[in-house]
Amino acid sequence: MRIVLVGPPGAGKGTQAAFLAENLSIPHISTGDLFRANISRQTELGKLAKSYMDAGNLVPDEVTIAMAKDRMEQPDAQGGFLLDGFPRNVQQAVALDEMLKAEGMKLDAILDLEVPEDEVVKRIAGRRVCRNDSAHVFHVSYKPAKQDGVCDICGGELYQRDDDSEETVRKRLEVYHTQTEPIIDYYKAQGLVVTISALGKVDEVTARAMQVLDQRTGDK
């Protein structure tokens, strides 16, 4: 299957992408991983992307599109893939359609993870990270530390990252609504969008997603 995963920040896209890709035996292709890999390997695209990032500018769509195209042409992606973070806007969605059409392929589904905005803010703004080890993550509501402000694992100080503040989260949601959400309407016109609730436990959300994807495959 060739799937695009969409949803607002805090919807759990990264977590669900990993589980779904494993269940479907297809590679999980995220833009974050693409940028890190290309920059680490010092590819021409990586160097170009880094030059924009170092200057504090957004990486142009054509660079992101070229990275995605290169990754989707790798042998492990020939039988399908799950895209996470790409396409990020309608221009990228059109470019993706054109890329696939040139190869005689098309997308099978756009999986839209739906989460109420207040829940997104609660999920992200409630995160607390250990200053000693960023892998130690807690949540004031869902995974509270035994002692307020103190990491259960190493005793380090727990703090809220600047990009997890409610103000920043709401700004990120505005960007999502303005730039990324329009691709849902773009793909709805093609009959590709399936929407599921991303509320509940991780395995419950995965089960919902697998059910609608299996149903979509069966309907074809």
TrEMBL record:
**What Gene3D superfamilies is this protein classified in?**
P-loop containing nucleotide triphosphate hydrolases (3.40.50.300)
What SUPFAM superfamilies does UniProt report for this protein, alphabetically? Answer: Microbial and mitochondrial ADK, insert 'zinc finger' domain, P-loop containing nucleoside triphosphate hydrolases
Identify the pathway. Answer: Purine metabolism; AMP biosynthesis via salvage pathway; AMP from ADP: step 1/1
Positions binding ATP in this chain are: 10-15, 127, 137-138, 200
Keywords, sorted A to Z: ATP-binding, Cytoplasm, Kinase, Nucleotide biosynthesis, Nucleotide-binding, Transferase
Enzyme class, broadest EC rank: transferase
Segments carrying the region annotation (NMP) are 30-59
Care to name a GO molecular-function term for this sequence? Answer: AMP kinase activity
Reaction catalysed by this enzyme: AMP + ATP = 2 ADP
- Binding of AMP occurs at 31, 36, 57-59, 85-88, 92, 161, 172
InterPro entries recorded for this chain?
Answer: Adenyl_kin_sub, Adenylat/UMP-CMP_kin, Adenylat_kinase_CS, Adenylate_kinase_lid-dom, ADK_active_lid_dom_sf, Guanylate_kin-like_dom, P-loop_NTPase
Family as reported in the entry's similarity comment: Belongs to the adenylate kinase family.
**How would you summarize the oligomeric state and partners of this protein?**
Monomer.
> This protein is called what?
Adenylate kinase
According to its UniProt entry, this protein's organism is: Streptomyces colonosanans
**Encoded by which gene?**
adk
